[in-house]
Every structure is written in C-alpha cells, then in structure tokens.
Amino acid sequence: MAIEVRIPTILRSYTDGKKAVEGAGETLSELFADLDARHPGIRERLVEDGELRRFVNVYLNDEDVRFLDGIGTKLSDGDSVTILPAVAGGMR
C-alpha cells in the first residue's frame, strides 16, 4: 500500500530535503511508524503520548484527521497525507 506524505519545510531535514515521501500503513499511526523506520526521528515530531501533537495538523486527502479518527484514521492505497505545523504569532 503506497501513501504519499507531503512534508513541510521544517521537517524536511528528516527526509533528506524531500517535499514528499512514500509510506505504508493501514492507519495513520502505522504510517507514522513506517515513516519513522525510513526517516528516524520524524514520528516524535508528530506524535506525543499516542496522539497527534497539539500544534501539528494532518490532512488525509485534504480532510483534517482530527475530525475523522485522529491517529487511528484508516488509510487506503493511493491516499495523500499532508503534514502542516500550526503557525502562530505575528507583529504587534
């Protein structure tokens, strides 16, 4: 099962600068474990205590997984997962 994962700039140091990588898994959790096996350290930037980190947004085919089953969201061959860190701040 091949799943395309789009990687934000801030995490590309884990993927040798690649904007997108392939992964496998029946759930988002399994996908992150597979990614970590291929790109060590990336999972801990995405997951904390078995859940998505608070400031990490993940989209499955453009749908926010927090409104699906979170890290337990089921995946299918050909799906696209986009990881986006939340950005806050600005100038006063």
UniProtKB/TrEMBL annotation:
It holds the Pfam family ThiS. NCBIfam families: moaD_arch. This is MoaD/ThiS family protein. It comes from the Bacteria. InterPro entries: Beta-grasp_dom_sf (IPR012675), MoaD_arc-typ (IPR010038), Mopterin_synth/thiamin_S_b (IPR016155), Sulfur_Carrier/Prot_Modifier (IPR052045), ThiS/MoaD-like (IPR003749). Gene3D superfamilies: 3.10.20.30. It comes from Streptomyces hoynatensis. CDD domains: Ubl_CysO_like.
